[in-house]
Write a structure and sequence with these properties.
By secondary structure, the protein is mainly α. It is built from four helices and two strands, in the order E-E-H-H-H-H. A two-stranded antiparallel ribbon has the order 1-2. The protein is globular and about 25 Å long. It starts with 12 loop residues before the first strand and ends in an 8-residue tail after the last helix.
Amino acid sequence: MTDLSGREPAYGAIGSDGTECEVDETLVPQIIDVFKARLKRDTCGPDDDFFALGGSSFMGVLCISDLQKQGIEAKLQDLLAAKTPRKLAQRIKAPRQAG
């Protein structure tokens, strides 16, 4: 079964649609760092809403670009659907391996 993005879900956590999916916890701190840098905030938690922190769709584009530069396969629609670092980590893929 694939989700709306066409990806096969892994298992381990409950996604927004009630199905199980894996959270790559190594992605959460990377997403938090990008949110903090782009939103110029000292703090951001794994369950903090990007837009409630002052994010906009334009800032979202910049955040997604920053994540992609780190090799993380994220799309703007992922951020729009999953507004927190933890939920975003559920939707995106781990960094591509070099080599």
